[in-house]
Amino acid sequence: MNSIRIPSSHPRYESLMLREKIVEAFHEGIVVAQGLIAHGRGECFDYLIGEKTTKPAQKAIQAAAAALLLAQYPVISVNGNTAALVAKQIVLLAKEINAKIEVNLFYRSHERELKIANLLRSYGADEVLGVGPDADATIPELHSERRRVSSRGILRADVVLVPLEDGDRTEALRKIGKFVIAIDLNPLSRTARAANITIVDNIVRAIPRLLDEVRKMKNLPRSELKKIVDEYNNEEVLKESLLEIWRNIEQWFAKGLTISFPK
Ligand code: PTJ
Fold it and tell me: Measured from the CB, is residue 80 less than 6 Å from ligand 1?
């Protein structure tokens, strides 16, 4: 494995460290090669949104927390990239909202299912669904490997959290009546546009914030949680997320782009 030490003084230190995490998980067989490409696409959108949790993302996080607290049977779907970046926080979140965790992979192999489940268990997950014969059901009208789900998990869920994925499944889940919360840095992706709530943020910031929000809102009356979800408008939030990018571009234009150096 070709690994070098990234100096903490590097201006892109945090981003480069995330890259290291993904690459390491690739070498461990948790992330697929295609996951590295997906991460790069995410990095590009993260740059454009300013590598911070924007106001529209925070609004979506609040609505997502309310929806998860209201859910009768919430399920968190985990793929390779999610496991690589936020396995520990996923386990904490699942415990806080009493959600099931299910491994669901686009590039499914039994070996990867097991590796991801073991990683989640190493952080304290009591049960991980969707592994081997547990993926015993299928989502109709979905032809990718993502169609295989657990009848005790995604198939039964009323609310499904899908951090970072490709576009086919969210649409299929919506068609069978699931309430879908997506986390996707690309506000234009099919997943982002098909979900009920889309958090346009990096999962490494969004999941810890979601956990904080759930903890803060846990004791709110159900009527108040319901009001938050009912008043939430994903179309508006996606437009606001795009506007954030637009404003950043305007600022770069106004400030100038080139970096000056002493003569
Ligand atoms: O582990 P598997 O087999 O299920 O495969 C997972 C990948 C990610 C390879 C698969 O789902 C895929 O091909 O996804 P896409 O179509 O590349 O979509 C990934 C989306 O996630 C893109 O819109 C990226 O912008 C976005 N994204 C990438 N990294 C992050 C992210 N969104 C939030 N946080 C990130 N860190």
Answer: yes
